[in-house]
Design brief:
The chain has 457 residues and is an alpha/beta fold. It is 32% helix and 18% strand. It has twelve helices and 17 strands. A seven-stranded mixed sheet has the order 10-16-11-12-13-14-15. It has a five-stranded parallel sheet with strand order 5-2-1-9-17, with helices on one face. Strands 6-7-8 form a three-stranded antiparallel sheet. A hairpin with a 6-residue loop joins β14 and β15. α1 packs parallel to α3 and α4 packs across α10.
Length: 457
Amino acid sequence: MPATDTALPIAVIGAGFSGTMAALHLLAALPGGRPVLLCERAEAFGRGLAYATKAPAHLLNLRAANMNAFSDRPHHFEAWLAGHAAEGVQRTPGGTFAPRGLYGRYLSELLRQAITAEGRPRLHLVNDAVTDLEPVGGGFILRTEGGQAHRIDGAVLAAGNLAGPGEPPSRFRADPWRLDQAGRLHAHLPVLIVGTGLTMVDAVATLRERGYSGRIIAVSRRGLMPATHAPTEVRPAPNLTTRDLRSLPTLLRRIRQDVADAEATGADWRGVLDGLRPITDFIWRSLPPAERARFLRHLRTFWDVHRHRMAPPSARAIADEIDRGSLTILAGRIRTIADAEAHAVVTVRPRGTERTVRLDVQCILDATGIGRVSETADPLLRRLIARGLVRPGPFGLGLDATPDYRALGTRGVGRLWTLGPLLRGVLWECIAVPDIRNQAAEVAALIATDLERTEAA
């Protein structure tokens, strides 16, 4: 049944990649009279935290060939790059890697095209922070920080990666994505980065781009850094047995054997891991809860550094820093942080020892990664949890949800959907572009079916 001019909109909250894709697919799936509200607290739409950077050294950690916004247009992003001034694009034997800021421009242009494609735009941008969804009838009243109120039929939560709980507690702490707020940094005192993953890689590039020439120390529990992309052929997904999926050690032995078999033929371990991607969520759901918890305690870091890899130019820059001694990777635990008059005093216990090392640092960057829903200070999520509309999912990583992406709360389910990183825990592969674009298409189709069923009743 076609929607009428009085049809209430569907709101998408968050306009990074997850929200942008959800909004674009909703425009295609919903009847012509149904508007879509795209809500974003930041100034720019279509960028989010990941793609708002302007630093050319901040490269995508997936090849351009895998970064298409639409799964049915396999060369869409590469064609866009070919038609634009693509400064900073790195072409390597392992693939083409574009700056993340350039990818943000690509997404912003998709939104502009969607707004201007019709004589009467159905996509409406709300540049304000959403603070509450108040249940009314079968929908909600969406309220914003600036005092706006919108009656909506339903909403998609697409907030992306949540900020961590705010550690470390120090007045010398700075946001690695907003280093301009850290003030002037002096070469005689080191900068400490907490975390040694992809955010650390970007933080090092940003520090050097800003002219900081001093020493950088990066610390994490195991001191592991992301692997590097290389040319590889994806291996077929293995046929896993019930026995393989019953025990994490058994599953790990099976994957290690597959890697050994691949290497015996001259192939690469990357192809084995890439071959697991289509079945990773099946594996995650099949493992008993105790084995999933075991994975989070013992194997998550090892999975992350092999699964989420560096672009080769980024890897070379980090290797050069380590060779020069200007970057030190330290495996250990931070024991204490105390603020002195002009710097922070950090004590670290190196892994495998009982001794501690004192570090006098002028700035501490938290690059520990994604925060948990169970620890979030996000005002909207806290209100939705308090209302019983959503609840933390498995292990508190993300939101609980049904297989059709409906958010689960203590009050059951309503017209509230979610996708992307907020599904971490229910799903495992839910943070990369290929996964999110597929989720967005599925969510849009499910919402359209739900609305059609309701209108036909």
